[in-house]
Amino acid sequence: MSGAVSPQAGLWLAVVASGLYHGLNPAMGWPLAVSNALMQRRAQALLAALLYLAAGHALAILLMMLPFAMLASVFAWQREIQLGASALVIGFGLVLLIRRRHPRVLARIPPSRLALWSFAVAIAHGAGLMLVPIYLGLCRADEMDVGHRAAQTLIESSLRTALAVAAVHAAAMMAAGGVLAWLVYRYLGLRFVSRSWFNLDAVWALSLILVGGISLALNAGAGTLTGVA
């Protein structure tokens, strides 16, 4: 079917969708952007805060993916790396589901340091870890003649993909969080936040488990088919 979505397009859609999801999640910082704009009494402060939040978030995602990018040339262990990453995501989700306390180090970072705060929150909540299985899938989808490429070329290609994933994800996050922050700042007001505050901790943990589970199932299935062939 000509209208079918390719695996690579589906993975990029997952990157954008996770960015929108992270942007709407209050824990990723859009209320701080509203607060910044209200304190300075100018709309430009909202955009500035969102840029800092997006920068910290993108850096955390990139840092999480870099070790896997450096392993891109290990052809023989590619499937094992993907299975291990999937299991790691599931395990982290289970930890967050069981242990709901936020790391104490987050309380020591003043909200005025938005980029640092966003970076620490993304690391602590596993935002970058959630994207690792998707990123590894993109690397595999792009490896058409992987057996004929030099290791250095593969690593460079993987690093470019990591940068692209971090940038696209952060842009989607900034767009979703920015729209919500602007609506609260300009029209809805702080009463909307206090009345409709939603805690996504459990949903966040379950989403990590879901992403890891899907990736684990797909890679395990691919390995079974390879063995049969």
From TrEMBL:
<protein>
    <submittedName>
        <fullName>Uncharacterized protein</fullName>
    </submittedName>
</protein>
<feature type="transmembrane region" description="Helical">
    <location>
        <begin position="114"/>
        <end position="136"/>
    </location>
</feature>
<feature type="transmembrane region" description="Helical">
    <location>
        <begin position="12"/>
        <end position="33"/>
    </location>
</feature>
<feature type="transmembrane region" description="Helical">
    <location>
        <begin position="197"/>
        <end position="218"/>
    </location>
</feature>
<feature type="transmembrane region" description="Helical">
    <location>
        <begin position="45"/>
        <end position="69"/>
    </location>
</feature>
<keyword id="KW-0472">Membrane</keyword>
<keyword id="KW-0812">Transmembrane</keyword>
<keyword id="KW-1133">Transmembrane helix</keyword>
<feature type="transmembrane region" description="Helical">
    <location>
        <begin position="81"/>
        <end position="98"/>
    </location>
</feature>
<feature type="transmembrane region" description="Helical">
    <location>
        <begin position="162"/>
        <end position="185"/>
    </location>
</feature>
